[in-house]
Design a protein that fits this description.
- The protein has 13 helices and 11 strands.
- By secondary structure, the protein is α/β, with parallel strands linked by helices.
- The strands form 3 sheets. A 5-stranded mixed β-sheet has the order 2-1-3-10-4, sandwiched between helices. A 4-stranded mixed β-sheet has the order 8-5-9-11. Strands 6-7 form a two-stranded parallel ribbon.
- Helix 2 links the parallel strand 1 and strand 2.
- The structure holds (2S)-2-hydroxybutanedioic acid (LMR).
- The site of (2S)-2-hydroxybutanedioic acid (LMR) has 10 residues, from loops.
């Protein structure tokens, strides 16, 4: 009897603890907590843990603490991390179509990017990597990219011979080669030091990344170029996601949609504020670009579109252009 009771209570204890153990969800990214992505990840944790109280525990790892570029995608596919939000420039190994977001001067502003992402063509891209074990849960904005360098960049010929750090994207490589630059693919966590030590002379990033990673302290000039976009796709491991209990998946999905809305609002509202902070610190000079100079950059970089049209698809490029009003 005693023995039976002991077994029953042991089973109950196991059952109880198995039920009580929350599903641990690791959300890893490479930027700081103050950026749109950083804030969206923290919002996701808050919302998911509220909606699914006791059922999930979300652990957010920012600033490349857990995985940096290059490693994070592999880790997701292996199941070592459940959610990541890489820049759209970092997906070409998985789908060449997403290279569309790197084409220089394709989108006039973030609102146009948003319209394209919301279109049928944009939404289809979220599901384009399922066979590779990746599901896109949504797009998340950061902002338009600004050129920075240790010399002012007015005309595109000013970039000749300059070394530029780029994300791991062949389109971005072609973009800087088109103006005679020497692009180098480097992980985000290495950019500050590469700029500081002169491994590279310049780079491109939106204001939130420039400010929060202090790139303005190691660059003499930042140009208001808005020549391209840096946005993200929030992705998850398809096998893991599809095996989640339906109520958990639903709750996580709702939390994700809301957290993305929140992050996008941060992206819209705070882009100018990050720019203003860079100006206020007065370490790098922020230079406007004239219409003539911007037109010259656009002309110099335009051949990149044709170069990648085969991989991306002419139809998709047209659909993206339609999003510009
Ligand atoms: C970069 O590598 O410059 C960006 O993709 C970093 C990020 O996640 O915003």
């Amino acid at each position: 009897m005693k023995f039976k009771l002991a077994i029953v209570s042991a089973l109950l204890a196991v059952g109880f603890s198995a039920q009580a153990a929350p599903i641990v969800i690791k959300y890893s990214h490479v930027v700081t907590d103050v950026t749109p992505k950083g804030q969206a990840a923290l919002k996701f944790k808050e919302l998911a843990e509220k909606k699914l109280a006791g059922k999930v525990e979300v652990q957010v790892f920012s600033n490349s603490q857990l995985f940096g570029d290059g490693k994070e995608m592999e880790a997701l596919v292996l199941g070592d991390v459940q959610i990541i939000a890489p820049s759209l420039a970092k997906f070409s190994k998985y789908t060449p179509k997403l290279q569309i977001f790197d084409l220089p001067f394709l989108f006039t502003d973030i609102a146009a990017v948003d319209r394209f992402q919301a279109s049928k063509e944009g939404q289809d891209l979220l599901r384009s990597m399922e066979k590779k074990g990746i599901i896109g849960l949504g797009y998340l904005h950061n902002g338009m990219k600004q050129l920075s360098a240790n010399a002012p960049l007015g005309s595109p010929t000013d970039a000749k011979g300059m070394k530029f750090r780029i994300q791991s994207s062949d389109v971005l490589e072609a973009q800087f080669k088109a103006v005679g630059g020497n692009p180098q693919k480097l992980a985000f966590a290495e950019v500050y030091q590469a700029l500081q030590t002169g491994v590279v002379d310049g780079t491109e990033n939106p204001w939130s990344n420039i400010y929060s990673k202090k790139f303005h302290e190691v660059q003499k000039y930042i140009m208001d170029s808005n020549h391209g976009v840096l946005d993200y796709m929030v992705i998850t491991n398809a096998g893991w996601w599809n095996k989640l209990p339906a109520d958990i998946r639903k709750g996580l999905n709702e939390a994700m949609v809301e957290s993305i809305k929140f992050g996008n609002k941060v992206a819209y509202d705070e882009d100018a504020a990050f720019r203003a902070k860079v100006i206020a610190e007065n370490k790098a000079k922020v230079l406007p670009m004239s219409k003539e100079h911007l037109a010259a950059w656009r002309t110099a970089m335009q051949p990149v579109w044709k170069q990648f049209e085969g991989e991306i698809g002419a139809d998709l490029i047209q659909a993206a252009q339609k999003a510009n009003k």
